[in-house]
Amino acid sequence: MFSNTEIGIDLGTANILIYTKSKGIILNEPAVVALDTRTNAVVAVGNEAKNMIGKTPKNIVPVRPLKNGVIADFDSTTQMLTAFLKKVGKKSGLSMRKPSVVVCTPTGSTAVERRAIDNAIKSFGAKEVHLIEEPIAAAIGADLPVSEPQASMIVDIGGGTSEVGIISFGGVVTSRSVRVGGDHIDEEIIQYIKKNYNVLIGESTAEKIKIEIGYALINHPEQTMEVRGRDLVTGLPKVITIRSTEVQSAIREVLETILHAIHDTLENCPPELSGDIVDQGITITGGGALLHGMQDWLSGEIQVPVHIAPNPLESVAIGTGRSLKMIQKLQKAAK
Ligand code: ADP
Ligand code: MG
């Protein structure tokens, strides 16, 4: 029980997941901290902090330390991770002393950003830290044949970033990372309602609208939803009714940016591997894969079969945890 625990961390922009082989996913919480601006102390993390968004006194502000897929705020990221590890240590009974940790990083991250992640993990006493590229973790978690001489293509649509990668023989052959994801869809919904209804809605409301009546760019039976916000003219609370077709047009640009990244990756795919992708199709994962109609829309646009990973919100964490074995094997082979 007190041996080294091996853990995989999905350091997402929206959600942080921690996975261990023996217990599976032992933590899944939003990547949010609540900061007291007077003292700069972290007063809450994860679920507790997210619930405070938009509801707290002025001196308590919620911060997303990983905005846009990179560590924007190093101190609060470290504090958040430490709090999460403490929590899972207590809850799972696993020893969190000097764990071996694998963390996946966005493909587009710079050396400085990667070092920041490495430091954040080491600062809570990890024995060893390995960083793996997100598309590989996503592909392993989605059960794709990553170590075989057969190309797989994975599209991970997260909160702050979307990653597209083609993988073969255990490596990333080509990839794209765009700093666009589900958060931007929420933002577009907020802007649309502000512009067209003069009503301000919060981030959580926008996310709810997206999840309930948001559709990728496909034909669908129109749905409506009642939404509460603040009238920008009178300053009073107001209820409006939003149609799914409105939401669809509001989020068009974000979806097209993601499509563009997929197109680009396909165009840059070595011809020898293109055949595999046409045969096997691509796999989408991350929370964005759950947007209504995403699969149909993408397969229509790129003319290649599109599959959804078994567990889009968890597959990267699972893949990150499973990759430890692969990394250790490679290290042994190299010795
Ligand atoms: P990250 O890896 O960046 O933390 P995730 O893969 O956890 O991101 O996905 C989070 C994003 O997915 C958020 O923007 C969230 O709103 C969105 N999301 C979650 N569930 C759904 C759903 N059912 N439909 C559409 N978007 C969803
Ligand atoms: Mg992710």
TrEMBL record:
Residue positions binding ATP: 13-15, 159-161, 207-210, 287-290
Subcellular compartments: Cytoplasm
Primary location recorded for the protein, binned into one broad class: cytoplasm
Keyword Cytoplasm: yes
Entry keyword set: ATP-binding, Cell shape, Cytoplasm, Nucleotide-binding
Matches recorded under SUPFAM superfamilies: Actin-like ATPase domain
CDD domains per UniProt: ASKHA_NBD_MreB-like
Entry-linked InterPro entries: ATPase_NBD, MreB, MreB_MamK-like
HAMAP family xref list: MreB
Family affiliation: Belongs to the FtsA/MreB family.
The protein's role, per its UniProt record: Forms membrane-associated dynamic filaments that are essential for cell shape determination. Acts by regulating cell wall synthesis and cell elongation, and thus cell shape. A feedback loop between cell geometry and MreB localization may maintain elongated cell shape by targeting cell wall growth to regions of negative cell wall curvature.
Complex formation: Forms polymers.
Protein name as it appears in the record: Cell shape-determining protein MreB
Species this chain originates from: Gracilibacillus xinjiangensis
Gene name tied to this protein: mreBH
